[in-house]
From TrEMBL:
The keyword Transferase applies. GO terms for biological process: glucan biosynthetic process. This is Glycosyl hydrolase. NCBIfam families: glucan_65_rpt. InterPro entries: Cell_wall/Cho-bd_repeat, Glucan-bd_rpt, Glyco_hydro70cat. One of its GO terms (molecular function) is glucosyltransferase activity. It comes from the Bacteria. It comes from Liquorilactobacillus satsumensis DSM 16230 = JCM 12392. Cell wall-binding repeats lie at residues 167-186. The lineage of its organism: Bacteria, Bacillati, Bacillota, Bacilli, Lactobacillales. Residues 1-153 form the Glycoside hydrolase family 70 catalytic domain. Keywords: Glycosyltransferase, Hydrolase, Repeat, Transferase.
Length: 735
């Protein structure tokens, strides 16, 4: 309008309002924005002091001045029926002075409802006129009662402050409301007043904003006390309930017929609260979902639960479970009706689906949780079977449905699969030991002579490609496969020998003689060649720098030349011994060239230190040689003497011309006495040698003969030329 040069006063053109300086008394009803009356409001056909009069100079000048132009430009404005009146605006009535009759509504002023004095017992407004006055009884000099009065029949009446008895009216006392019938008596129990149902407690107090249960059903009385009938009602918490025509509150699965005649199914919980945007189970145990806005039961559609999960509701509104085909897509729902997403779902036949983030069953090759899986066109996971991919390659899915990798034995055949699960076909495959296979069009390792990519190759019975070795063909001819596994041609120097091979790779022999067992087959096992013991593996390769066990269970060691060693050997830091035939000695003695002896244990290793062999305690030096005819110091500092058999001696011994004495355990006695078998005694000095002559031992003067035997109970002519006598028991010299 501004663009057309038309000024709109306060921009409120349809009502032509400018300002309202005056007031007038009107009958007012509180409505919502749609013009629907609010039955709970205290302003309900109530006299109201409203700012609805006036307009002044500007209103008189401009009121309706632009109305014709507006009608010309915007005719639709004057054809639309107004909500409050149900009639279109009259473009011919130009408002130069405002009053209530022009209003479609008035702003809420927060004042005005009680500015007009009235008597609440009679609902009459006080007035004074020449022909009709209505004033409080007290002002008329009449006797007046006020408040609640109980008569002789125990019936309660009420008189207003103006002295008038309340009849056919509601009375407020404090926060409570009461109703008095046409006889002026207080009502109790259920009653219909002015077409509305109310309920009053035995003390007459009106039920307001309260639920009432009669034992089987529940009812609700609004804030104004009117029973809610045949309608929805929203409480202060925003929850909705529905009450039937008889006022009964709906619970459970409920059929409701709307004004337009359409019947809808809704659900109300045990408290009567309508379920919206959630699911509920009724007494039939079936799960249903109800729209978040209307609360109507959802059919043939999805419903989202508060936790973000989804249901699908069938034509009966019941949540489906298990595998479902919805809009041409395979989906899966758990037993609780929730749609499965980003997870597996098991079908009744034991097969599995995987549902993606949209809840749709995937098909074809999929990588899930780092594992390659495959799903058929119906969404079922493939297990224990092959599957061909779009690029023509193949997978094999194991019992868990996971694509296998590496070496696999399937249906009795050894097959190989790459790290991505694709089967190796018409290609080479290197094994962990460095050897190579070639897998044919079926993925099976080839054997024998093969021409691949124009080159002659050879593969052993285990499928491993032969490299740097000879191979005999079925016709008795021979190939030599180089480091790449390709059969050589022409002149070749192999193992220091000049050989020749034809264009087909077969070796030219003519008068060639292969040094083997005479039939052209390479020798294996133990062989004596040129007087030397050698050993060849099952593939004919000579063993060097390694042990080999022979058929009889014995062992040989082949040196760097591949010859079995003999005699004493130090191998891997251990002293071993091998007989003249190369067999390793175990659990036996062996005499060395210098006359010394070794003992080889069950591992064939020369023992050291103290050993009990055949019930005898023997000793061996760090080099494994047995101690014989020599002393041996033990860890505790004591000494043994090992005789010619290596056994520790005991008792009196003459060693290197010296008399010594050894305990029963073989340890040499030093600085102590030793008793001989005949009861005589020796004393062994710090060097373990028996002392002779006169000795002072432990404070006693004793005497030992030249053979070391102590003198007891006898006399000896000593060096001083005197005879000395010694005690029979102690041997101590007598004075």
């Amino acid at each position: 309008m501004h663009a057309q040069g038309i000024q709109a006063i306060n921009d409120w053109v349809p009502d032509q309002i400018y300002n309202l300086p005056g007031e007038e008394i009107v009958t007012a009803v509180r409505t919502n924005g749609s013009g629907v009356s609010n039955q709970d409001s205290v302003i309900n056909n109530t006299l109201y002091d409203s700012h609805t009069v006036g307009g002044g100079q500007y209103q008189a000048m401009y009121g309706g001045a632009f109305l014709d132009r507006i009608k010309q430009l915007y005719p639709d404005l004057f054809e639309t029926k107004q909500i409050s009146t149900g009639q279109p605006m009259n473009p011919n009535e130009k408002i130069t002075e405002w009053s209530a009759k022009y209003f479609n509504g008035s702003n809420i002023q927060g004042r005005g409802a009680w500015y007009v004095l009235k008597d609440w017992a009679t609902n009459k407004y006080f007035s004074v006129s020449s022909n009709n006055s209505f004033l409080p009884k007290q002002l008329q000099g009449k006797k007046a009662s006020t408040g609640f009065v109980v008569d002789s029949k125990n019936r309660t009446k009420f008189y207003s402050t103006s002295g008038y008895q309340a009849k056919n009216t509601f009375i407020q006392d404090g926060d409570n409301w009461y109703y008095f019938d046409n006889n002026g008596y207080m009502v109790t129990g259920a009653d219909k007043i002015n077409g509305y149902n109310y309920y009053f407690l035995p003390n007459g107090i009106e039920l307001q904003d309260a639920y009432f249960a009669d034992g089987t059903k529940e009812y609700y009385y609004s804030k104004s006390g009117k029973q809610i009938l045949d309608q929805y009602y929203q409480d202060s918490n925003g929850n909705w309930r529905y009450f039937f025509k008889d006022g009964t509150m709906a619970k459970g699965l409920t059929q409701i017929t709307a004004v337009n005649g359409q019947t809808v199914t809704q659900y109300f919980d045990t408290d009567g609260i309508q379920v919206k945007g959630n699911a509920a189970k009724d007494s039939d145990g079936k799960l249903r979902y109800f729209d978040g806005i209307t609360g109507n039961m959802v059919v043939n559609s999805f419903g989202e639960l508060p936790d973000g999960s989804w249901l699908y509701l069938d034509e009966n509104g019941v949540a489906v479970t298990g595998k479902q085909n919805i809009n041409g897509q395979t989906m899966y729902f758990n037993a609780d009706g929730r749609q499965v997403k980003n997870d597996f779902g098991e079908l009744a036949d034991g097969s599995w689906l995987y549902l993606n983030s949209d809840g749709v069953a995937v098909i074809g090759e999929q990588v899930i949780n780092g594992k390659t899986l495959y799903f058929n066109a119906d969404g079922k996971q493939v297990k224990n079977d092959f599957k061909q991919l779009a690029d023509g390659s193949w997978l094999y899915l194991n019992s868990d449905g996971v694509a296998v990798t590496g070496k696999q034995v399937i249906n009795g055949k050894t097959l190989y699969f790459n790290a991505d699960g694709k089967q190796v076909k018409n290609d080479f495959k290197q094994l962990a030991d460095g050897s190579w296979l070639y897998l044919n069009g079926d993925g099976v390792a080839v054997t024998g002579e093969q021409v691949i990519n124009g080159k002659t190759l050879y593969f052993n019975a285990d499928g491993k490609q032969v490299k740097n070795d000879f191979k005999q063909l079925a016709d008795g001819s021979w190939l030599y496969l180089n480091g790449d596994g390709v059969a050589v041609k022409g002149k070749q120097v192999i193992n220091g020998k000049t050989l020749y091979f034809n264009a087909d790779g077969k070796q030219v022999k003519n008068d060639f003689k292969q040094l083997a067992d005479g039939d052209g087959v390479a020798v294996t096992g133990e062989q004596v060649i040129n007087g030397k013991t050698l050993y060849f593996n099952a593939d004919g390769r000579q063993v060097k720098n390694d042990f080999k066990q022979l058929a009889d269970g014995s062992w040989v060691y082949l040196n760097g030349d591949g010859v079995a060693v003999t005699g004493k050997q130090v191998i891997n830091g251990k002293t071993l011994y091998f007989n003249a035939d190369g067999r390793q000695v175990k659990n036996d003695f062996k005499q060395l060239a210098d006359g010394s002896w070794l003992y080889l244990n069950s591992d064939g290793v020369a023992v050291t230190g103290e050993q009990v062999i055949n019930g005898k305690t023997l000793y061996f030096n760090a080099d494994g040689k047995q101690v014989k005819n020599d002393f041996k110091e033990l860890a505790n500092g004591s000494w043994l003497y090992l005789d010619g058999n290596g056994v520790a001696v005991t008792g009196k011994q003459v060693i290197n011309g010296q008399t010594m004495y050894f305990n029963a355990d073989g340890t040499q006695v030093k600085n102590d006495f030793g008793e001989l078998a005949d009861g005589s005694w020796l004393y062994l000095g710090a060097d373990g040698v028996a002392v002779t002559g006169k000795q002072t031992i432990r404070g006693q003067k004793l005497y030992f003969r030249s053979n070391g035997i102590q003198v007891k109970g006898g006399s000896v002519l000593e060096e001083d030329g005197q005879w000395h006598t010694y005690d029979l028991n102690s041997g101590e010299e007598l004075r």
